[in-house]
Structures are given as structure tokens and as C-alpha cells.
Amino acid sequence: MKTMHVRRAIGLAGAGVLAAGLTVALPMGAAQAEPDPQPAATGATWLATQPVDGLINVKNEYDGEVFEGVDQGLSLDVAFALNAVGGQGDTVTEILDAVAGEVEAGKYIQGDEYDWQEPYDFQQVGYYSGATAKTLTAAVELGGDPTSFGGVDLVDRLEELVTPSGRIEDDSFFGDYANVIGQSFAVRGLQGAGDDASAAVADAVTEFLVLQQCDNGGFRLNFNGADAGCTDDADADPDATSNALVALSSIETPDAEVEAALADGTDYLLDIQKADGSFGGGTSTEESNSNSTGLAGSALAALGETEAATDAAAWVRAHQLTGLTTCEAGIGADAGAIAYNDADAAAAAKDGIGDLERGVFVRAAAQALPVLTLTPAAVGDLAVKGKAGFIQAGSATKVTVTGLAAGERACLTGGKAAVVVTGSGSATVTAKAGTGVRTLTLVTAGDATAQTTVSVLGKAKLKVQAAKKKVKKTKKNKITVKGLVAGEKVKVALRGKKVAAGKANAKGVFKAKFKVGKKTGNAKVKAVGQFANRKGATKFKVR
After folding, report:
1. Which neighbouring-strand residues pair with 534?
2. Cα-flanking dihedrals φ and ψ of residue 373, to 5°?
3. CA-CA to 135 of 20 to 30 Å: which in 45, 442, 461, 543?
């Protein structure tokens, strides 16, 4: 494999040991629908407020106790994402400087120092290859000095953590936890460092990454062997695959081996993408989530699969909180955040983002935000149309919504409860109690508004009057029904048998004549309006 160089304009992010984020610009000349800039801009504005002094602090609960600490890897994820979207240069610089300070203090890429009690009494300091590779990538792509970042020559440090086979390896008392995501960072960092890095080492790292591709095109997450390649398709991991493909797709002049890996990897992602555009995480690929969907969508964009990438972007947008207070009362200043999954989106809309959940939202946004640059804009005017005729109070009815972009969230009010509407199509709303014309209002995060009306009929006791209290058999009687709504359907039954039907006049009155039949005695007349809970009755005598 010959020496390769990468295009530094393409960003890569990651999130530590088990997950990583990446950001990718579309290939030059790639055809795509006109994007809507709002989702990415709103998400970036929110994400930029999350670091404190350039670092992300996260809280986690274990065994009933809450732990809080700095997550340098997640901090870099945020910087990568903001850099990909643009407009947050000051925050990106602040994060890079803060992480450099952590490196200078012997943190993140370097293991903690331990002073064991007697009889051990020794100290162990190690270096983590994945963190080192990720930090090198940040220095290369975000404007740092890869040969003096926090006082550390990251290029030399990472090269020292590469085995002769090209595999990265942790130098740690706790063992080796290097994986394919870190290997992907090593490809980007060492190839991107150019003349500062050894071409032979950079190529060896790239070759070992290609070796981790399974027969089905996916890349495994864990090495499971010092120098081995993937031998089981069940090990293929969507997130690891997305990171690996972005690393390989950034190579300016890939050889045939890399080209084949890119083609097979593209097929793998397209095969596991769900019908709604989403991706699941882990080898099971079951639960759709914004992290994996964002990663895969960005990778597919880099590989020229614009349609599939746009579908992924629409799914991510559907999980971005809008801050529309009527539908998302708990969001407030967290508008623009991206939920990990459906359950997190619903919980946050109701109760807000709690301290223990914030780290999940930050990680989701850091990995999914870049793909939002692909979300298509809405086509046509915003409109909502309710069902013609009457609907029963308390019942569910469908309305038709047009003019929303794919995945765009809007709030529909005027029903029993506010409803989140996602994209154009149909939405279901429950009619309020009572009778009257209800106005349904649809509002988007961009303050676009559309309205429609629906006619609602609630429970009612109709007033039924017979013109004659006594009628000879076989003759006719006249019935008057009041309390209806103009145009409301009504049926009249004598002794349980329908004798008249029609609609109420403009005053809400219905009149009809009918034969009383041959049966003598008391006769009950019952009138039922449009719905069964709108009824009334009276009696007269047949002689």
C-alpha cells in the first residue's frame, strides 16, 4: 500500500472507547435537494453552550451515587461537530485549548498515576492509543500543532503505540482496550499529519484498518486478536463501520484495496439502513438511535450516497427538540438538542433534560449534528386541513398536513391536547368536549403558522315534540326535533323502527311526518343526531 494523503476539509469526531462521531462534507458536485440551514444552526447554537471553560462535564449515577467529571473525548466530539457545521469557531478554539491543557496536565491520553499501598508501592503511567489518535486528529483538523499539543508530540506518541502489524495498542497497566474506532482515528491523524508522520507507519495503520472489514462489508469494533482480521460477519458494527469508511474515504488517492473496502462498506450500510432512514447501534442493529444514524448518514454522504444520507438526516431531525412550548413545555433553553431515541425525546419534551441525561443529549448532538446539514427544506406552503363534516367530541380525527420538511417537527394545538407533528402527511388530534367549531393551529419552530377548523358535536339531549298527543291508527303524526346543529344528520324511530331521516335546517331544527301504524297504545318516538350520544324522545298515543 503506497503512501496516502487525506483531505483535511473533512472532519472526524469520536466519543471515547465504545462510540465515535464523524462529520463529512458532501463530495464536490454531489446532487442533493436544497438543504434547510435551520436544524444544523439551531443544534450548533445549543451544543456550543454545553462546554464549561471548553470542557464537557458529565454526571453519571452508579449504585445510587452520582459521579461528575470532565469528558475530554466528548469535548472533542463537540468541537468536531461544531467545526463541521460552522459558525462556532471561537468555541471550537476554546475546546481545543482546554483539551491541550488537559494533555499538558497528564490527563486523557495518559493514564492516571497510581501510588499503591504496601507491599506494592509502585506507580504506573500509561498512554491510551485511541485517545491519542483522536487528539492527534483534532490537532490536525482543528488548527492545533500535532507535534506540540499540550507540550506533547502526538505524532511520535501515537507512532510509539503502533505495533509492527499496524495495529494501535494501549500502553496501560489496566490492559489494552484499543479498537477499530481508535484505529480509524489513527488513520486520519497519521495520514493527515503529512510529513510530520512516518509514511510507513501511516500506511501500516491503514492496512490494518482494512483488515478489520468483515465479509459482509461491515467493520468489527473489537480487534479480538493482536494481528487478526474479521472472520465473523456477526461482529460487524455500524458505528465502527461508519468511522472506518470516513477514514478511508478521506484518502486522496486510494489504492484498489481501499476502493474495494469502500464499495463493500457502502453496500453494508445501505443494507442495514431501515425504511425510515435510521440505523441501529451495535451488532444487533435493532434500536434506532440518533448517534448511529448520524454517523452512518455522514459516512454515506462522504461516499456519494446522497439520498440515503438525506433520509438519515430527516430521521435525526425528527428527534431534534424544537422548544415549541405548547408541545414541549419542558425544553426551554434546550431547544436544538438532539434526543438519542423516541423515548428520550418524549421524556425531555415533558420534563426537560435532567442533569443525569444531559451527557446523553450532548453525545447524541455531537455525533448526529453534522448530518443535519443535509436536511431538505420544505416544499410548498404550510397548510393543515381538517375533516369535512362533523366529528364527535372526545374522538380522534385525522388532519392532513403539507408544507413541512421531511422530519420537521411542528406543534398542532386546538384539540384536547397539543400534538407533535413530524413531516408532511397525516396527524391525529383528539377533539375537545362540547359542541362548536374548533380552530386547529399548526406552528413550526420557524414560527410559520397554518390553521383549519373542524366542527365538533358533543353530548346533547335533544328536544323532541309530537304535533299530536293522540293519533288514530294508520294516520300520520308530525315530529319536531330541536337542539341539533345546522346540517347535522338525524334519524327518527317509532317503536324502534326508523320512520324518518334527514338533516337539521339552519336553525338546528328537523321536522318530519310519518304514519303511526296499526298498533294502538302508547308509542315512543326517539330521535338520534349525528352521533349516538345526541338523542331525545317523546310519547304519544295511538287509538
Report:
1. 460
2. -65, -10
3. 45
The mean pLDDT of 390-397, rounded to a whole number, is 95
CA-to-CA distance for 303 and 24, rounded, in angstroms? 9
Residue pLDDT, tens place only, 335-380: 999 999 999 999 998 889 998 999 999 999 999 999 999 999 998 9
* Half-sphere exposure of residue 280: CA atoms within 13 angstroms, side-chain side: 11
How far apart, in whole angstroms, are the C-alpha atoms of residue 198 and residue 542? 109
Rounded to an integer, what distance in angstroms lies between the CA atom of residue 23 and that of residue 39?
A: 15
Grid cell for residue 537: 324522545
- DSSP-derived letter for residue 58 is E
User: How do beta strands 470-471 and 521-528 pair?
Assistant: unpaired
> Helices (DSSP H) in 305-435: which residue ranges?
306-317, 342-351, 355-368
How much is the pLDDT for 11? 35
Which residue, 149, 38, 23, 26, is CA-closest to 77? Answer: 23
Q: Which three cell numbers stand for residue 295?
A: 454517523
Coil, strand or helix at 260: helix
Residues 250-279 as b/e (b if ≥16 CB within 10 A, e otherwise) read bbeebeeebeebbebbbebbeebbeeebbb
Residue 517 Cα distances to 157, 473, 497, 499, 540, angstroms: 103, 6, 11, 11, 13
Residue 62 pairs with which residues in a beta bridge? Answer: 65
Which tops the pLDDT comparison, 354 or 1? 354
Length of the chain: 543
Amino acid (1-letter code) at residue 328: E
From residue 510, how far is each of 362, 464, 519, 539 by CA, in Å? 62, 10, 25, 17
Q: Quote the cell numbers at residue 388.
A: 369535512
Torsion (CA) 61, 62, 68, 73 in degrees, nearest 10: -100
In the DSSP assignment, the letter for residue 11 is -
CA gap 199, 205 in Å, rounded: 10
Whole-number Cα distances in Å, 441 to 119, 198, 327, 392, 422: 73, 62, 12, 19, 15
Instruction: Please list the residues that pair with 497 across neighbouring strands.
Output: 494
CB 36 within 8 A of CB 332: no
